[in-house]
Design goal:
Order of helices and strands: EHEEEEHHHEEHH
Number of strands: 7
Radius of gyration: 16 Å
Largest sheet: 5 strands, antiparallel
Distance between the termini: 55 Å
Length: 154
């Protein structure tokens, strides 16, 4: 399967706008390399060329390659593609036509109890998806677990 069948067009997207709700996780210097159909992003740090993976499902940013050349090598690794492009989850809907500027996202995110299944996916505007997931994970990140534990023990 071709990588372009697993991603959405990004040439019209502005990284600062798209990633603004993720400022709690990383500085807005990263630029978009590609966005998967499931709304995750591969990002590049322009100065170093380091490639990052923004996992919007888990609210995490992971360094995956130290250069675009190494990233291209990863894209030739079948296991990497299956994992990072969530092929098992995407498989039931991959043949469907997607309107412009949309990604598949969870109607109810798994972190909030939603099922990790293609039955829980629907199309969302790409900006809405990145905004909503960034806000959700930002709120979760700001929870003081010690305070919650103390309240439960009171």
């Amino acid at each position: 399967m071709e990588i372009q069948n697993l991603t959405i067009p990004t040439d019209h997207l502005n990284a600062k706008d798209l990633l603004k709700e993720w400022a709690w996780l990383f500085e807005p210097r990263l630029e978009i390399v590609m966005i998967t159909k499931l709304g995750d992003a591969f990002l590049i740090e322009p100065q170093s060329g380091e490639i990052f993976f923004l996992d919007t499902l888990d609210g995490e940013l992971e360094s995956i390659a130290d250069s675009i050349e190494n990233f291209r090598q990863l894209l030739n690794d079948k296991d990497f593609v299956i994992d990072y492009f969530s092929l098992e989850l995407l498989a039931p809907v991959i043949h469907l036509t997607m309107p412009e500027n949309t990604v598949y996202s969870f109607k109810e995110p798994p972190v909030l109890g939603g099922e990790l299944s293609s039955h829980n996916l629907e199309l969302f505007d790409v900006q809405v998806h990145f905004d909503d997931m960034g806000k959700l994970w930002g709120e979760i990140d700001s929870i003081d677990l010690d305070e919650v534990k103390n309240q439960n023990n009171a």
